[in-house]
Amino acid sequence: NQIDQLVNAGIEAIRDIPEDFPLSDTHQLVREVLQTGTPYVSEELGVDLNNLGPPAYYLDFETMSPIIPLYPGTSPIERIPFQWSVHHLDGNGALSHYEFLADGDVDPRRELTEKLLDVLHDSDTPILAYFASFERGVIQELADLFPDLAPTLEELIARIGDPHPIVRSHAYYPDFKGSFSLKTVAPALAPELDYGDLDGVADGLAASAAFWGMASGTVARASETQRTRQELLDYCKLDTEALMKVHLKLRNLANI
User: Fold this and answer.
1) How far is CA 14 from CA 32, 38, 168, 174, 228, in A?
2) How far apart are CA 23 and CA 131, in angstroms?
3) What is the pLDDT of residues 108-129, one digit of tens each?
4) In what helix (H) or strand (E) does residue 250 lie, and over which residues does it extend?
5) N or C: which end of the chain has fewer CB within 10 A?
6) How many whole angstroms separate alpha carbon 51 and alpha carbon 37?
7) Alpha carbon separation from 174 to 21, 26, 41, 166 (Å, rounded)
């Protein structure tokens, strides 16, 4: 209804929306930033960043939900994590990267879980994930699947922090273009990042389809499989690198 009202009034740009037009607080902020061209950073940004490190881990999963189950004991459309990437920034600023990508021949969840626990062994260091409900959900499903690992996995869930609501509440740049997704926020805050540089796999749906192709045997040639695996590794790694750079840029903006 609001869009119809604006269009009927001949308004085609956010910056031209009148001051007396009813907007949410977030939409008012977007209009102000686009009108002035000046990014918005709230004075309270640093408060919400206090407990997120560094040191910190940065985590991203990739999953698939095949309609026809690929592995014994799984159900149609059951979520199967097959890949993760973790960047780790220690207290001295030293950076490490870890990754896992299943072969696809067998159910990857046990190996994926054990290797993740090998990396996220620090019981105190925060784990950051963007739209963290997804990562929390994946880990909880793994805890339900493997009762012997459940206590340790549930400790991981308790350590997860999410920069997404912090960005949404405390920062807005013109280049966000109305979105708070990582793929929009990260290049706006860290222009050296470019998802356009990725070949083949450049989003979660493409990652899921690519892995399903390998696991189901649709992608059979060795050369094509090798290329697809590298594309998956590059994409997932970029996501956690982007998350790390967003976190550090936010800390810089908050002067902490």
Assistant:
1) 9, 15, 18, 11, 40
2) 25
3) 999 999 999 999 988 899 999 9
4) helix 222-253
5) N
6) 31
7) 20, 13, 12, 17
Residue among 63, 2, 53 at smallest CA distance from 232: 63
- Cis check: omega of the bond before 22, within 30 degrees of 0: no
Q: How far is the C-alpha of 64 from the C-alpha of 104, rounded, in Å?
A: 11
User: Which pLDDT belongs to residue 220?
Assistant: 65
For 130-189, what is each residue's pLDDT tens digit?
999 999 999 999 999 999 999 999 999 999 999 999 999 999 999 998 899 999 999 999
How do the residues of the chain divide into helix, strand and coil, expressed in percent and rounded to 5? 50, 15, 35
Q: What is the mean pLDDT of residues 12-23?
A: 89
Q: Which amino acid is at 27?
A: H
Q: Is the peptide bond before 191 cis (omega within 30 degrees of 0)?
A: no
Residues of 35-63 as b/e, b for ≥16 C-beta within 10 angstroms? eeeeeeebeebeebbeebbbebbbbbbbb
At residue 227, what are phi and psi to the nearest 5 degrees?
-65, -40
Using a cut of 0.90, tell me whether the model's pTM lies above it.
yes
**How are beta strands 80-89 and 95-101 bridged, if at all?**
antiparallel
